[in-house]
Amino acid sequence: MRSPLALVLPLFAALVACGDPPPPPKAPPVPHGTSHHRPSVPPPVLAPTSYSHEGPSYDEALAIPEDLGETKGSRELTDSELKGPVASGQALADCNTPDDMKVVVKVAVKDGHAMGVTVSTDPQNAEIAGCIDKAVRAMTWPSSAKRFSFVTSF
After folding, report:
1. Over the chain, what is the mean pLDDT?
2. Among 12, 22, 62, 91, which residue's CB has the most CB atoms within a 10 Å radius?
3. Strand 148-153 and strand 102-110: pairing?
4. Is the Cβ–Cβ distance between 148 and 109 less than 8 Å?
């Protein structure tokens, strides 16, 4: 006959093995002065709207190699400086964008101007997307030799 300890020990080991796993490690603290901006809601992923661009697309602009030696010491633009000209939504109003239309605007900026723009709409509307594209390209930003990019949605 087995001892009671020999019967209880495997049962105890099985119960311990079925317990909750240890909690995940905590994220390291963000060093002071470091940007850790994360949008609370990511922009919706919309199918690209086919329209006539007034210049390079967002992806074409980002594909252009950037000479980092040329941009050394150039001004850094803040999120609010980058999104500011577009954030008001004035371009959407000027282009008669319906209130229920979803719009995603992707912009690459350099030297104070948009160097690449892509606009997606849902439902797709080439006329409105082209109008917003043209309006965004006419906007100005603080000048910097560095290339910056952002995506915003309405």
Report:
1. 81
2. 91
3. antiparallel
4. yes
The predicted pLDDT at position 33 comes to 38
Fill in the amino acid letter for 105: V
**Phi, psi for residue 115 in degrees, rounded to 5:** -100, -10
Each residue of 28-75: pLDDT tens digit?
554 443 333 344 556 667 777 777 778 999 999 999 998 877 777 788
DSSP string, the chain: ---HHHHHHHHHHHHHHTSPPPPPPPPPPPPTT------SSPPP--PPPP---SS--HHHHHHS---HHHHTTPPPPPHHHHHHHHHT-HHHHHTT--TT-EEEEEEEEETTEEEEEEEEEES--HHHHHHHHHHHHT------SS-EEEEEE-
- Does 154 score more than 80 pLDDT? yes
| Contact call for residues 92 and 103 (beta carbons, < 8 A) | yes
